[in-house]
Queue: 2 jobs
Job 1
Amino acid sequence: MGVRIGFIGFGEVGYNMGRGFKAAGAPQVLAFANGAHNKPPYSAAFRARATEQGVELSDSLESVVRDSDVVFSVVVPVAALSIAREAARCTRRGQFYVDVNSSHPSQKEEAARLIEASGAAYIDAIIARDTRTMPHVTIAGHRVHMPIASTSAAAFKKLMEPYGMDLAIIPGPAGNATRAKLIRSLLTKGIMALQWEAALAAWKAGLDPDALKGDVFAPAEVSLPNFLAELTADPRHPISGVSHLERRSDEMMECASMLQDIGVEPVMAKAIAQRLKWARGFRLEDAFGGKKPASYKDLLAAMESHTRRSSVTSR
C-alpha cells in the first residue's frame, strides 16, 4: 500500500523531500504552507510548482495530518512548538510526527509530550550534512542524511527503509538529535566565525588569504578552500555563504541557551553568534546587486569598503 507522506511547511526542505518521496514511489505526498508568502489561497505559480513534482497542496494543517501516515514538520524554528501543539489536536495512534526543525531541545521535548499524548509517535529529526561527503537536500531530497532520536526511532527507520531514507539513530529520547546537532554546530560555526574574522584581517593587512593556506590557515585545523568556495559557489544563491548567516547566528544562540541549561558558560557560543550576526550586517548581497561576485576577493574587498564607510560615519 505504501506510506502516505504529509508536510507542514513547503519551503526548500519540504519541496525537495516531497519530490524525492514521490519519485521513490510514495502513493501520496501532501503539503500545507502558511508562511509569509505562500499560504492559502495559494498562488497559481506556487500550486504549479508543487503539482509538477506530484505534491498536492492542502488548505489546512488538519487535513494534512488526518490524511497522512507520516507527517514532517519543516517550518521556521520559532513556530515549531506552536505547530506541534496544533497538530497534536488531530494526530492519532499509528502515526509518526517527524519534527525536522532546529528548535531548542527543551521545545522538542515539549512537542514530544504533546504529540505522544495523542498516541502518535514523535521523532526528533535534524538535517546534519557532512559537506565533504553528503549532498545537500536540494540534491539528495528525502535521502538527505537525517539523525533521529526517539523511543520510536527504530520503528520509524524500519517503516521508511523502502524509500531509502538515510536515517541515523541517536541514542536516547527526543531532544538528543537536536542536542547532537547543536554541539556539532559549536564546532562548525565556531570555525566559520573565526574564518570570517581571520580572512578579513588578512585582507586588511594586505595579505591574500589563499596565499596563507599552508602556513596560517593550516588544512589540518580549518578548511579555508571550502570556506572561500562556499561564499560564491551556489549559482542559485549568488552569495550562499552569506545568505544563511542570520539563521546560523540564531542557531548558535540556541546552542548558547542549551549550554547554559547544562551548566556550561557559553562564552564562545555567544561570541560566535555575535560574529555571524556581524558578518550578516554587511548585507553583501546588496553590494553586488543580486549578482554573483567574480571571486572571494571581490567579496572581501566589499567588506573592507563597508567597514571603512561605517568607520567614517561613526566619527
Note: The longest strand covers residues 4-8.
Job 2
Amino acid sequence: GVYLFHGENDALLYVGKAKNLATRVLSHFADARARREQELSRLVRRIEWIETAGEFGALVTELRLIKERRPLLNRRLRGAEGYWTIRLGRDTDQPLATVVAFDPAGDPAGSHGLFRARADAVRALEGLQREHGLCTKVLGLERAEGSCLGFQLGRCRGACVGKEPVVLHALRVRMALAGLKRRDWPFPGRIGIRERDWRGIEEIHVFDRWCYQGMAAGAVELSELQRRTARFDPDLYRLLVGFLERPVYGAELLTLDKP
C-alpha cells in the first residue's frame, strides 16, 4: 500500500509505497543517523495509510498522490506539460528535427523521447547527430550556405552537398531516433491490470492508449470508467511500459475491449 506522513496543521510531508506498510514505516524512524529520517522524526505528527490489492496498485497510487497533493519532502513530479520532445517534421523528402514542448494530444509517431528539460532534449539530439554522422543542415539545425560544418570536419556523409542520397539519409535519421520513439499502443482497446489481495479484494487499474482511466472494483465500475477521458502522463506511461516488459508478481493483464 501507500503511507502518508503529516506534520503540523496536517500538512502533507511525504508519500511512500511499501510491500509491507508496518515494516517500511517503522524503518523511517530506525536510523537516527540519516538526515532525512531525523527530519521526519522531528516533523511527523500523524501517519495515514491506504491499502492496495497489490504492488502495481501501490505504484500507481503513490505516483498519483505525489502529483496531486505535492508533499513537501517528495521529489516533485511534473505533468505532461513539463516535458520536452524531439519532433520530426518534413521538408519535401527530408525529416526536420526540432525540440518542442511535449504535447500529450500530439501524434505519437512524430514524438521522440520525453525529457525533463529542453537542454536535455537538445543534448540528446546533438549526440545522435554526431554518433550517426547525420547532417545538421538537412536536419534543419544549421543554416549556413553550402555544406554543413560536420561535412567539412569529416563528420557528415554529405547529404547537404548531394554526396549521400536523400532517401538514405532520411532512413538513417529515423533509425537513429527509433529508440526514443513513444511506443504505439499494442492492444485493440482498453486493458486492465488486475490484482487480488489475501482477503480476496480485487482491483482493476484501467488504461487506454497509455492513459490511466482509474481503478475499478467490478463490472459496473468498469463500465463507468469507459466514459471517462484521461490525459497522457509520462510517468504513468513509463510505469505501464515497465510492467509490460516485466510484470509485477500477482498482477494479471486483462484485455477489456475485444477487436
Note: The chain has a mean pLDDT of 86.
